[in-house]
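Researcher: Let's walk through a ligand-bound prediction step by step. First, I give you the protein sequence. Second, the SMILES string for adenosine-5'-triphosphate. Third, you return the three-dimensional complex as structure tokens. Ready?
Model: Ready.
Researcher: Here are steps one and two:
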Amino acid sequence: MSGSPDQAGPSHVDANSSRSVHFKTDLLQILRELRASGSRKFWLALGFLVLGGLTEGISILALLPLLQRLVQSPEDAAEVNLGVDVGGLSFPDFTMTLPGILICFVGLVVMQTLFNRFKSVFLSDLLYDFSNRRRLSLFKALGSTRWDRITRMPLSRVEHALTGEIERISLCGFCLLSIIQSLVMIGIYVGLGFAASPQMTAGMLLFGILAAVFMRPFRKRAALFGQLLQESRSSQFRTVSDFVGGLKGARATNSEDAYYFTFSDLLVRNKADARTYVRYEAMGSGIFQLMVAGGAAFFIYASFIWLELDFARVAVLLVIGLRIAPRFLGLQGQVQQLLIDLPAWRYIYNLEQSLTADRDDSIRNGVNVPPLKDGIKLRGVSYGYEGSKTPALNDITMQIRARRITALIGPSGSGKSTIADLVTGLIRPSQGDLLFDGRKLLPEEINGWRARIAYVSQDSFLTGGSVRDNLIAMTNFGSDDRSLWNALEQADAVDFVSALPHGLDTLIGDRGVQLSGGQRQRIALARAFLRSPDFLVLDEATSALDWRTQERISQTVCRFAASGVTVLIIAHRPSMISFADEIYALDHGRVVEFGGGEELLTRRSGAFFDMMVKENTTVPD
Ligand SMILES: Nc1ncnc2c1ncn2[C@@H]1O[C@H](COP(=O)(O)OP(=O)(O)OP(=O)(O)O)[C@@H](O)[C@H]1O
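Model: Step three, the predicted complex:
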């Protein structure tokens, strides 16, 4: 593992050596990733960029010999010999008419425009492929990371990486390609310059290198700004996501201002950082331009006075110099921009690495698992969450019999959901055995086992979109209306869905915000029923329902069990589970009581009876 995403924080900004190592590794990784679309595409993109640079203003250059001739002898304008010899660079003898030259000029402009269009589309494709590949592999990494790892990480970080920082990755790729283009262009111009005057060109090159060294503090500043920018964007995203996620609570408690102040404070700091950087950067560009102007004056003086070069040679050197100088300036800008965006690359790369390092191997190579025959057994199972002092489950022995209803009850934090996570294969026991039909599942079977499960949690997660979209998400069914209505019927949701303005096709807002809590739960239940599971897990899935609706759901659950489905119900309320075949009462991660509903109610000193009384449920005399 190459480190956590947190390692990209400002505390590391001063670590020069590690930064330069990171810098090189990052560049190599970006290059490798750019080439992942195919080496041919990569080299073509570079070729197009260099060609684009070389042909910049080529149409104007085509007119130069013509203008030179016109100035020297205007009467020869009807037919012009394009052969020239300027400062050591010669064009061969070639005669053309004036209209011919002008048509060529327009033709060149057309070709250049077409080429630029093609080049832009090609580059855009390459860069999209580049950033999309990272986006998809991060997405995939999240989907295949071990569940216990996911529960420990702030998911807003992944969301931010996938939706915000990823855009900066594209910029990293583009900057790196542009840097290579600038270096190649500088190389070409230096080569041409050597043909005109080796001493002067060597001098220019030396001057460029000195200027690059001089600009080092400005590049360091860019790297620092990049880190600050990344931190600030991440904090902004977290604040917005907290605010949006808890908007109702914030509005109801009048605490929008607290979010507003935090957010505006972040924006002010962000602006201050940007302003400091822009000032510094503008000063750097100014100094660089002054250096170029001073250097040009010095070169002209040295060419004429010390080296006594003729005017034509000096003119060529000047033209070359004037093309190299902006390249140097551009190079400096590109490197700075790359340094600003590089933290985004490192952030995403580290995040993906750390997710991949905790990959749940069972997610790959899914092997089909037969339906349960006997059931699931937990034998002396303990489970401790990482970092927790006390285990969530302590030496649990219990059985979930096939085609029966098993219920877990107990106070909050007693370990009920942890058992559900174990039997659905999301986590593995720290100690003890978890046996499916008498044997442990092989890692590659867990995926196949999950395909047989329908799980409704207390959060009843819905997506945006319509009722139909939510029902068919996570099922292998098409949009066969009859099965959808049938599932809704089983979840006692027909009445309210029929009353929605567009029935099944009514949009229910982000995460079903336009429905009541109980309606959301019923859609989630219908979605689970639609899956035709072999193993149905309801974890507080009816907590928001009134007793009458709950009773109808209980009847559905009993019908499911009668038709061969194994059911695990988790509830706080004893009334929701009294119909279960077996009930396990948990407390502090241990089974404190076990038996059938009727049987437990007769134990007047038992935990289950105690819970029923506290819930004010009518108990038999
Ligand atoms: N991701 C986690 N990281 C650390 N500890 C956890 C995590 N999830 C649960 N726990 C702890 O494990 C214990 C059992 O939690 P669990 O969610 O299984 O209880 P529960 O009986 O389902 O509670 P509730 O009825 O409130 O949902 C609790 O003490 C809880 O704090």
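Researcher: And what stands out?
Model: The two ends are 63 Å apart (CA to CA). The mean pLDDT is 81.
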